[in-house]
Amino acid sequence: DGYITALNLIPDSPAWLAKIRANPMFLGLDLRGGVHFLMQVDMEAALQKKLDSYSGDIRRALRNEKIRNSGVTQNGNALTVNFQDAETATRAVSVLQKALFDAQIAQLSDKSLSISIPANALQQIREEAVKQNINTLHNRVNELGVAEPVIQQAGSDRIVVQLPGIQDTARAKDIIGRTATLELHMVADDSLLQQALAGVVPTGYELLYEAGERQVPVLVSTQVELTGDSINSAQQDFDENGAPAVALRLNNQGAAIFGDLTRANVGKRMAMVLIDQGKKEVVTAPVIRSAITGGRVQISGAMNVAQALDTALLLRSGSLAAPMEIIEERTIGPSLGRENIQKGFRSTLWGFVAVAVFMVIYYRMFGLFSVVALTSNLLFLIAILSFLQATLTLPGIAAIALTLGMAIDANVLINERIREEVRKSQLCYYVKEHGL
To answer: Do the beta carbons of residue 374 and residue 355 sit within 8 Å?
Structure first.
């Protein structure tokens, strides 16, 4: 139950070919069938993600240096940090320049600073967003087990994804288009939660709900303490109660931040927020009992094994730098791919037969030798493609047919030269016999 047997994925190679490890070639999208997506990257979201990262770095740097501030606010594509006096603002400039080496810092007044992104950094953000999305898509498609996918950039903000032989197109579309990221937020006190439930959400907080049927409300701080970019690996696991969970391993920087965060907030609640397709859900919000070091974290909540596997896949393959929208989708069925294979095979076969018949009729015995050489050429070509596990497409079959016509060209030149030499020898013999 819950499994689909895809018979068209089972190779039907003869046993003697399998014994000598003659593997079948990979088939492209036009021969095997599959899906084609054209996706557009949301550059505005990539810029907003960078500003959010700046905001977290600013708060963390000022907190480490014990510099008091009145908060970080966003004005368009810039951030504003307010201080109590000019001396504190001047002191913060050097601190922020070290923490945000690629940002542009300017003083709006004696007590406020403006942090913006330079023009060259904006262009770099756009380019890196497309590159990171391509890398993330490669990781996710590899997790799906698709052989020889095509993932490449098309224009400045578009990506082409071709998945040949994919069976569950709905799941593939769901996996590659999701933007699942994990964020850690601190949870507010119960008094602020009651205020938020009454309809007045305090500034700097956001009312979210735990995943599952109960939908327990949780008031979390908008300040992001740690993001999923610090995740090295994620695997489906089970918690101490036997419920499905996701085991995470953080990198060195993430482990250090997580250790400092838990050490400084013992007795408080910390929420793990999963952002997927623009929807935020609190996976779990445990109470911090002690400092957690070593970089090993486990998240559990209202999820089944399949959801835990998908969540681990998304977190393990990395988060998208920016959301993407599928603006074009094409599906090629296996029947159409089979028809292309048959037509390509027949065209190559009849082309070979036509060339072979012509060579045998026109050059007779030498033509027969040419046909044997042409057959060996075709067999060696297909054997090398199979050995290299090359992807065969419809243009590739046309190229094989073209190769047959070009390969016989040398045999024609050789046979014509032999005929010329035979004519010359016959002429010389005739002249010698008749004394001319």
So the answer is: yes
